[in-house]
Amino acid sequence: MSLEGGCLCGAVRYRIEEDSPPCYACHCTECQTHSGSAFVLQMPVFANKFIIEGKVVTADQDLPNGRVSTIHCCATCLVRLFAKVTGREGLVTVRAGTLDNSKTLTPVAHIWVRSKQEWLEIPDGHRVFEKMPSEADWFEILDTKNRLEAG
Ligand SMILES: [Zn+2]
Ligand SMILES: [Zn+2]
User: Fold this and answer.
1) How far apart, in whole angstroms, are the C-alpha atoms of residue 7 and residue 143?
2) Phi first, then psi: what are they for 136, rounded to 5°?
3) Does the structure show a pLDDT above 90 at 118?
C-alpha cells in the first residue's frame, strides 16, 4: 500500500511508499502564517520512500532552532507540498493536507499548543505538547523504531 497526493493544478504528484505514516498538527505561529490557516498537518516520511514527479520551486526558511527548512512548492500553482530540514537528512516533511485522502487522517499529536487558536478544542486522547517535543518524544510519536524495522 502507498499514499498519493499532489498540488492543486496537477502538475506535481507524489507517492509515499508506506501504509499509514503518522501525522501531527503544528499550531505554531509560523505554520499559521505559512498556511494562512489555524494549523498545519505534517507527515514526516523517509526520503527513500518518497517519490515525486513534476517541477517544484524551493525557498529557504530559517527556523528558530537554527535549522534551515527548504520548502518545496509546485512551480505552477505554488501549493506547498513538502520541506526538507537541515539536521534531519533522510526525512521529508509532507504537508499532509495535500494527500488525496487527507480526510481520513487523524493526528497522533498536537505541538505548539500554547499558540493554538482559542476556539479550537483538541479531542480527548490526542497527545498534546505545549511547545516542541523532545527528541525522545518525537521518536515515540512518529513510531520511528517500528517503521525503520518494517524497512
Ligand atoms: Zn500545481
Ligand atoms: Zn509549526
Assistant:
1) 27
2) -65, -40
3) yes
| Cβ atoms 94, 14 nearer than 8 A | yes
pTM above 0.90, yes or no: yes
Ligand nearest to the CA of 129: 2
**Where along the chain do its domains lie?**
3-149
Phi, then psi, of 35 in degrees rounded to 5: -90, -15
- Predicted local distance difference test score (pLDDT) of residue 149: 86
Write down the CATH superfamily of domain 3-149. glutathione-dependent formaldehyde- activating enzyme (gfa) (3.90.1590.10)
Distance 54 CA to ligand 2 centre (A): 26
Dihedral angle over CA of 139, 127, 51, 30, nearest 10: -100
Ligand 1 centre to CA of 83 (Å) is 16
Residue 89 corresponds to which cell in the numbers above? 537528512
CB under 5 Å of ion ligand 1: residues: 7, 9, 11, 74, 76-77
What SS3 class is residue 40? strand
**Alpha carbon of 151 to ligand 1 centroid (Å):** 31
Strands 109-111 and 24-26, by their bridges, are: parallel
